[in-house]
Design brief:
By secondary structure, the protein is an all-alpha fold. It has 15 helices and no strands. The model has no long low-confidence stretch (mean pLDDT about 80).
């Protein structure tokens, strides 16, 4: 690997993941722990996912037509501007709840755009034999930085306030930009097209339709990640109801989740060269994740959440790394941005639909039934993935 590029990318990714941790871990807890906060948060989360489902496909053509290095920097500058706007809302309205909601929207928007952009950037910066290792290291950093930052933010915001937390976040994003500026980047010509924006968007849809079996497999492989996102809503709400020392219990759950992600990412980085069939490894990872969610159905209590959090983190990390690596291996450089954005849009659609269902169930205070539905979804996705993969391989052999 290009050690300098990898080291700088890892530092930049860790710094950027801090904002994700605050938005996706700390903010849900801070909102859910307030009176009527669970309904507010789940409603906001559903609206954000619907908006990102509509907007995300528009990102792909921009990624494939522009400099991915410059876009990585501009995205982080835009997030910094959003953080300053969060501060203005906080200082002007003197209402932490509105500022926290905006923080959540901002962080999720950054995350939805950054994933397909970073996928294309890694594909262009590194070689095919390095994809799995690089993705594994980035996944470890994502989970560790996000979880630790989110937990620290829960307690820090009560001690120091939203103002200083946001300022520190701005400094981290400046560090992320500085690291990107020093990464050697040679833009390839393979993804530089002179076609118009609408034509490029249409091409992205055609890319996904040209390989329907592979596209469907990738959509199914994102189900574990969607379920984990639902757990980020469910965990703070459920733990606040069943645990007396709810803040400490939530912190332990997130730390265990990060530990599972570390183990999963480290394992993949060690067995990188032994994974010759990424789709088969992805199937095994999905089945393992399904088993963990089924076990969570049997133990929907404080100890069950803590004990199984590492399993959720492990399964989510492994499926995400393998899914990103499969995209990089099966699609060319000039397709990566558009197919990644299309898949990210499908993720947002699933999140929006399931979030609306989750909001309805939580209003009825039926947490065990909600987890049971998640288990059914995970198992169904694994079974359908197995069937589609078998047909995909049979088609390749006959061809």
């Amino acid at each position: 690997m290009n050690k300098r590029s990898l080291a700088l990318l890892l530092v930049s990714n860790a710094a950027a993941s801090i904002g994700t941790g605050v938005a996706m871990i700390a903010v849900p807890w801070l909102l859910a722990s307030r009176s009527d906060g669970s309904i507010l948060f789940s409603s906001v989360a559903m609206a954000v996912n619907i908006g990102l489902f509509i907007a995300t496909p528009l990102i792909g053509p921009v990624i494939d037509r522009g400099s991915r290095h410059a876009l990585m920097i501009w995205l982080r500058l835009a997030f910094i501007a959003g953080l300053f706007l969060t501060l203005l809302i906080h200082l002007w309205l003197r209402d932490d709840r509105i500022a926290l909601v905006f923080y959540y929207v901002l962080g999720n928007s950054f995350y939805a755009i950054n994933i397909p952009l970073r996928t294309a950037y890694v594909q262009e910066t590194f070689h095919g034999s390095e994809y799995l290792s690089v993705n594994a290291m980035l996944e470890i950093e994502n989970q560790v930085a996000a979880a630790l930052t989110g937990i620290i933010a829960i307690f820090a915001i009560k001690q120091f306030g939203l103002l200083w937390l946001t300022v520190c976040n701005v400094l981290m994003y400046l560090l992320a930009i500085l690291c990107l500026l020093f990464i050697p980047y040679a833009r390839t010509e393979q993804h530089h097209h002179s076609v118009g924006y609408v034509a490029s968007l249409k091409q992205g849809f055609c890319i996904s339709c040209a390989r329907p079996a592979l596209t469907l497999m990738l959509i199914l492989a994102s189900v574990p990640y969607v379920i984990v996102i639902l757990f980020t809503v469910l965990h703070p709400i459920a733990i606040s109801r069943v645990a007396q020392n709810s803040g400490a219990a939530y912190a332990i759950v997130e730390l265990m989740f990060a530990l599972g992600a570390i183990i999963g990412g480290t394992l993949l980085s060690f067995i990188n060269r032994r994974v010759t069939d990424t789709s088969r490894a992805l199937l095994y990872a999905m089945l393992l994740f399904s088993v963990v969610v089924v076990l969570q159905t049997l133990f929907p209590n404080r100890n069950g959440f803590i004990a199984l959090a590492a399993g959720l983190g492990f399964g989510n990390a492994v499926t995400r790394v393998l899914r990103q690596s499969l995209i990089m291996k099966e699609f060319s450089l000039h397709e990566a941005g558009r197919i990644s954005s299309f898949l990210q849009s499908m993720i947002m659609l699933k999140r929006a639909l399931l979030m609306s269902f989750l909001t309805f169930i939580l209003a009825a205070s039926d947490v065990p039934f909600t987890i049971g539905c998640m288990a059914g979804l995970a198992l169904s996705a694994s079974v359908v993935f197995f069937i589609v993969r078998a047909r995909w391989f049979s088609h390749q052999v006959s061809f």
